[in-house]
Design goal:
The protein has 347 residues and is α/β, with parallel strands linked by helices. The chain has 16 helices and 7 strands.
Length: 347
């Protein structure tokens, strides 16, 4: 299975390098282009440049990031390259307007502006530049759209339950039909078998990654998704590596929270903490195995979110704990969670 985010980013990088080659021709500098493209990708899909700029618009973040990249490149380069670097900064500032999944009239205007700037700064006649640029952009947008559409499935669908404006819990629904001779109990048992459950989990991770990519393209940066990680994966190195390869992107990791129950964490703590060190972010569901003790409370500090029912005897004490109270999600506040969470985590 493919890492959707990485594939999308790689294609976008190639597109922008191609556009810069069209703009600069023989003057194209691969190193300078790569520095600006990397800056664009990182800020565009993380919506972050630095803490002081955290609350400004994405456009302002990109502007600041390009200025920082320009200063760094100028300081590291020969003096005669300063003008070229500044010209690259000028042209990459139009990337944001071109980075769409649909052909818009504004893009044609941007390409006209690029052509005018190209003539003024690089002393290059437009010729067929605008026509060729528009043609390439249309082809690239179609390829992007076709790539993302290829992950839509008539069989599987994400079911998303919002807890609040920031967090949502995800599960996979399907319309797979079984012969009538199978009872509901038999079907449930079949779905819960490790190999079937693991295959469905891979599809779930692929679907949620596709949703995250759609969010980031649409500049929806606030939503984070909680998704289960079945404990059976921890005993199967090849399978868990294959699963994690689907979400191994800093942009996806930032939006995804892998939920393990406390029983699984206690058994596979070394594995979980190692994946945390690799950048994956976890949440924990406090099942019946959780023993309210000082040692276990310290372990809870490892998790960004802690899911539990508010009828637990230790619920009020945890809500008073200054280090973890802001991480607690009461699953009883969302009825969808109450109805399915225990079976969801045990499957």
């Amino acid at each position: 299975m493919v890492n959707i985010m990485n594939e999308y980013v790689t294609f976008t990088e190639k597109c922008f390098d191609k556009y810069l080659k069209m703009i600069f021709g023989k003057e194209h500098d691969k190193k300078i282009a790569e520095a600006f493209i990397n800056t664009y990708i990182d800020v565009r899909y993380s919506n972050y440049v630095d803490e002081p700029s955290k609350k400004v618009t994405l456009a302002k973040k990109l502007e600041k990031a390009f200025e920082d990249t320009t200063k760094q490149l100028v300081s590291e380069s020969e003096p005669e390259q300063k003008e070229l670097i500044n010209n690259y900064c000028t042209f990459v500032s139009y990337f944001y307007g071109l980075d769409q999944l649909y052909i818009l009239e504004s893009q044609k205007k941007i390409i006209t502006t690029i052509a005018d700037k190209r003539k003024k700064l690089l002393n290059v006649e437009a010729g067929t530049f605008e026509t060729e640029f528009n043609s390439e952009l249309k082809k690239d947008i179609k390829k992007r759209k076709d790539f993302l559409d290829s992950f839509e499935s008539p069989t599987f669908k994400l079911n998303i339950a919002d807890f609040d404006e920031e967090y949502a819990l995800c599960k996979l629904d399907d319309n797979i039909t079984f012969p009538e001779l199978y009872s509901d109990v038999a079907i449930k048992k079949a779905r819960e078998k490790d190999i079937i459950n693991e295959n469905l989990t891979q599809i779930l991770y692929l679907q949620i990654t596709s949703k995250i990519v759609d969010d980031l393209i649409g500049c929806e940066f606030d939503k984070k998704y909680l998704v289960k990680l079945p404990s059976s994966f921890f005993d199967k190195k090849i399978k868990i590596n294959s699963l994690f390869s689907l979400i191994d992107s800093p942009y996806v990791q930032d939006k995804l929270r892998l939920v393990v129950d406390f029983k699984s964490f206690a058994k596979y703590r070394g594995y979980v903490t190692e994946y945390m060190r690799q950048g994956f972010i976890f949440a924990v569901y406090l099942d019946e195995s959780f023993d309210y003790s000082s040692d276990n409370i310290e372990f809870l500090e490892l998790f960004e979110k802690i899911l539990l029912h508010n009828d637990k005897y230790y619920y009020k004490d945890l809500k008073k704990n200054g280090k973890i109270k802001s991480r607690i999600i009461s699953v009883d506040e969302v009825i969808w969670w109450v109805l399915m969470l225990d079976s969801y985590m045990s499957s």
